[in-house]
Design the sequence.
């Protein structure tokens, strides 16, 4: 495996040490705040939703990781040995390079073309470079590069000026120009962006694989980033490339990919110059029942990938060859805004193409690749289950669950980071929060885009497309998108609310209260279950403040065989003026003493400061500012249940 370029952008050591210390501090806080009874039966909805879905998601991710390791350590070394053994026999008769540049800084363009010219000159194959540029300054830069390198004899240079309506039309013009030259059998085409620098040996170490595999239609390589921006931006790009490496390595086991990256990909020239291929690059579109017919603005790498996939050609990822991209956020001072714009464009390209690829079925691509495409559609919803359930359970059942979820995040994302770091060759503690950000915020963006994928924008070129010209039609489309998106999110939220027990179907007693006015006085009573949870969630030795109303308490709520929901509160305070009444069972009353230390048999007041005391096995508790009444046999079902919000009404 070759070394990563030395000038790859990463965060400073100071930032990484600071993030590591903050992570350790957060872990200590989470463990300290984690209740001892967090694994009680009341946690089952939380752990089923978060744990079961997490097991499914991370099992799939682990399969991808294992396939990646298998490819990099078993399959690819054999392929590399076969390719290297061919030597000069692997050289194509001629090479074409398509390089598109749009308003790239001259300093970057100089480095890109200098590396390209030197690489092509060293490769030694007759090569035609088609420079698709946007203005005359690009020509001056490229001419200067050629002067500096003495105009190598094996290089022919052609300039083509872009129309300014997007990268697709520029690529199509170059591909047509190449087709008119009638490439020789076995000729190859390299398609690359104008901000990608080829590292030494890129051509010789990647293009030789076409001679090894006759059914190989295209390949792409590993990436590194030279980032202009802060530490978070640098690690965000490096993390994305680490994740890209894992997935592309895994997919190469099946000799397929999920995208042919526009940064640098190589094709057989006879495929890339076919009229259908060129037409798809230039005029790729979708026919949608709601959006009608609209052309794709960006995502040319998805169109080239789809054509090869549909026609049964194999694809390959070369992990030991790096190309370096000059990366910069659209607005380097606004990390969240800029990363959102980029992810929205990337995910839009994926969603616009995946449906038709899934419709092809497993036959032309294999079952694993097909299911990977299906999983892209599912993962945007399953990723949201964990944080949604954590919020619901924390707000409505037990606040302490937030600590359990935080521990789950630190553990799972930390493990993912270690596996990525092992394969990438470096570790950064910034990856832990950035992975969670990419997953959760990325999933939200995917669901948003999936109902609006006709809306397209390209920040660098300042163009947008996909929506009708009629303003009223635009409003109508957007309104329907909002409704459908809201409905889908509402269904997911409703299912999770029911499954977590936040919302329960009404029981017979509740229905009778709603339909029978004679039960109006029952509205002031509070669910005894809420009291159990309140006693368990209180700090060790702390107190619980009860609102006005009636509460029921029995020994089963204080003692259980497995220690679940062990009450930690030691003081229970009622509302003023003895407006709080605690109804206890005779069994529990035997362990209660009033303010004078006498057993409670009927009704007793528990004023401050002495109050009433309870001594039951290991539990010691004091009740103040409330009345205690021993239950004389009233059926439990006759006690109405209302939510603790009655405290506010009181």
Sequence:
């Amino acid at each position: 495996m070759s070394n990563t370029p030395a000038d790859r952008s990463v965060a400073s050591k100071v930032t990484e040490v600071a993030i590591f210390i903050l992570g350790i501090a957060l872990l200590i806080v989470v463990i300290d705040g984690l209740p001892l009874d967090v694994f009680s039966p009341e946690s089952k909805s939380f752990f089923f939703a978060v744990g079961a879905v997490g097991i499914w998601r991370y099992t799939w991710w682990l399969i991808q990781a294992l396939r990646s390791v298998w490819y990099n350590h078993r399959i690819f070394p054999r392929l590399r040995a076969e390719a290297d053994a061919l030597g000069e026999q692997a050289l194509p008769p001629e090479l074409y390079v398509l390089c598109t540049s749009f308003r790239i800084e001259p300093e970057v363009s100089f480095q890109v073309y200098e590396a390209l010219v030197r690489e092509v000159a060293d490769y030694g194959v007759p090569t035609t470079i088609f420079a698709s540029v946007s203005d005359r300054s690009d020509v001056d830069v490229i001419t200067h590069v050629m002067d500096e390198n003495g105009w190598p004899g094996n290089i022919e240079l052609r300039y083509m000026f872009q129309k300014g309506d997007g990268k697709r039309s520029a690529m199509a013009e170059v591909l047509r120009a190449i087709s008119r030259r009638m490439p020789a059998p076995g000729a190859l085409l390299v398609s690359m962006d104008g901000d990608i620098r080829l590292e030494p040996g890129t051509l010789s170490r990647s293009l030789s694989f076409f001679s090894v595999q006759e059914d190989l239609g295209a390949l792409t390589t590993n990436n590194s980033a030279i980032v202009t921006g802060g530490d978070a931006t640098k690690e965000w790009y490096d993390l994305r490339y680490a994740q890209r490496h894992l997935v592309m390595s895994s997919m190469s086991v099946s000799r397929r990919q999920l995208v042919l990256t526009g940064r640098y990909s190589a094709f057989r020239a006879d495929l890339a110059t076919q009229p259908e291929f060129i037409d798809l690059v230039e005029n790729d579109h979708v026919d949608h029942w709601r959006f009608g017919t609209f052309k794709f603005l960006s995502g040319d790498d998805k169109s080239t990938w789809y054509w090869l996939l549909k026609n049964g050609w194999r694809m390959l990822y070369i992990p030991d060859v790096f190309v370096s991209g000059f990366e910069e956020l659209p607005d380097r001072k606004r990390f969240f805004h800029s990363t959102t714009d980029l992810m929205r464009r990337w995910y839009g390209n994926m969603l616009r193409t995946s449906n038709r690829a899934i419709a092809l079925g497993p036959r032309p691509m294999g079952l694993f690749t097909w299911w990977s495409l299906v999983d892209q559609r599912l993962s945007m919803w399953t990723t949201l289950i964990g944080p949604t359930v954590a919020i619901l359970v924390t707000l409505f059942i037990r606040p302490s669950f937030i600590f359990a979820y935080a521990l789950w995040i630190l553990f799972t994302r930390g493990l993912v980071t270690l596996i990525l770091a092992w394969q990438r060759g470096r570790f950064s503690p910034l990856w832990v929060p950035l992975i969670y950000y990419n997953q959760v915020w990325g999933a939200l963006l995917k669901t948003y885009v999936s109902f609006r994928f006709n809306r397209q924008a390209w920040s660098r070129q300042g163009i947008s497309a996909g929506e009708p010209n009629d303003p009223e039609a635009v409003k109508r489309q957007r309104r329907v998108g909002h409704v459908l998106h809201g409905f889908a999110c509402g269904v997911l939220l409703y299912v999770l609310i029911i499954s977590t027990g936040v919302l329960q179907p009404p029981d017979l007693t509740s229905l009778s209260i709603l339909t029978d006015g004679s039960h109006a006085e029952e509205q002031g009573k509070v669910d005894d279950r809420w009291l159990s949870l309140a006693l368990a969630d209180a700090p060790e030795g702390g107190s619980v403040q009860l609102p006005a109303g009636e509460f029921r308490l029995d020994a089963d709520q204080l003692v259980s065989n497995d220690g679940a929901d062990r009450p930690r509160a030691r003081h229970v305070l009622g509302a003023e003026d003895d407006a709080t009444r605690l109804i206890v069972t005779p069994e529990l009353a035997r362990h209660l003493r009033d303010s004078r230390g006498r057993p409670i048999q009927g009704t007793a007041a528990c004023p401050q400061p002495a109050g009433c005391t309870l001594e039951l096995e290991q539990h010691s508790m004091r009740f103040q500012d409330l009345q205690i009444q021993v239950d004389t046999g009233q059926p439990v079902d006759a006690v109405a249940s209302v939510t603790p919000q009655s405290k506010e009404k009181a």
The chain has 20 helices and 21 strands. The mean pLDDT is 85. The radius of gyration is 33 Å.
